[in-house]
Please model this.
Amino acid sequence: MLRKQPFLTAENVTLRLQDRLYFKNSFWQIHTEEHWAILGPNGSGKSTFVRSLWGGVPLQSGRILFNASESQTEAQGNPQRDSIGYVSFEMHHTLMEQEELQEYHRAFAGKMDEMTTTREVIFSGILANRKMTPADEERCASIVTLLGIQSLLSQSITSLSTGEMRKALIARALLKSPKLLILDEPFDGLDETSRQSLAESINDLMTASVRVILVVHRIEEILPHITHVLFIKDGQLFRQGPKEEVLTSDHISNLYGCQLSLERVNWRYRVTYEVGKPEPIHPVLAYKEKPQDVPEVMIEMKETTVQYDGRIVLDKLNWVMRRGENWAIWGPNGSGKSTILRLIIGENLQGYANQVILFGRQKGTGESLWEIKKRIGAVSSELQIQYRKKMSAYDVIGSGFYDSIGLYQYPTPDQKKIIDQWIQHLGIEDIARESFHHLSYGQKRMILLARAMVKSPVLLIVDEPCHGLDIPNRKRILEILERIGQTRTHLLYVTNHKEEVPDCITYVMRLQKGKVLSQGRKEDVLQKQTKD
Model:
């Protein structure tokens, strides 16, 4: 009896990106009934490696042997793309680039009422050389129900949150009925309920005919049916094998280069590390205005309502953020968190139709967008998507002085000193001179925090700052935010991970479907949430 061939083999594979070689002569196999998780530090090459499996990164040498049909004959060369489903943040980035171009063409042609809907994105996963069938429609209905996105199908993709778009892309990948599903950080941007629901859905998929490769930064997101783990570090396959053998405290500590403790409760893994006492921010980098120069009421929203095509996103929101307060906003995907931030930053024109007061002045009473932005620093996935032109990470940081997407005026010598000091504070000297376009998702997030802080803003808005960050960088950015929160810079922190809210946060607002469930002092809101 002939032995069944491995499902996938990467044989003597070497990849080239720019002038650097990755994974020199590497060997890796997926056997029948195996599902893999891939972990590694930011910039180690995880996404590059999995993209090579479906032909997204060309091979310098070696070959990918793909046996989708599980017959005795191996299929040589890059596997057929219609047999593989793939989801990543870069796909989101590319899709929004395309939609921006489409909106430009629509405006030029006078077709402003046209839009790309979520449904159209999902069905774009089917090959263009065939028509949709009733079976496609039936499978789509099943998938969107599984992911809980039925209500999003007719919406414009520009109105979706990061988490909602992630679900739409997963639905598009599943519609092809792939033999292999590669999910690169699928849980980033999802609220706790959505993460649990998606985890159950992916876990169920592993019991069917599809194999799953899960790229994650959070060890707790490794699912029960994952059988094997691959560590990637410095562009090389660092360690691989069965999950129970690879996931140990020593191996994880060696992977990330710091002392970590790993424990397993039932099927779920959890990693812990020692948190050091945060050092104060250097006075040169701290917000310099005296407390009395900041208005008593920094942000106030009165009966604020935002709606799109009859769908209410914010429903009569009443909220006040006062001088000396640091706030966190929690809520599930689509609850209105990002809408609040857009109202503050000035990226939502409905702010002018509501009573929104920023730094003592009501919106629409003569202040310019730039007057608002010069007092605010921001870090978000949406901002990260906007940086599409090729420029150095250093220039991205420098653009924070001018609140521009791109650098059109070079920093002064004094500003360069501040840039260098923030680079040192964040420990990003090794990537600061690299092309921003070539950095990993998590590395870009660190650069954007430096960009937000170079002008020492009175208000720092951080929307899911730990997205895409590995364990050491998550630890580092949370410590930095804790230090910032003890200066005169005020924090407005948006997250789906309550365990990552810094201690310096003093007040919390909980949202659901555009309504405030509770707001007030952090301890009171947490206590009420526990009772609920």
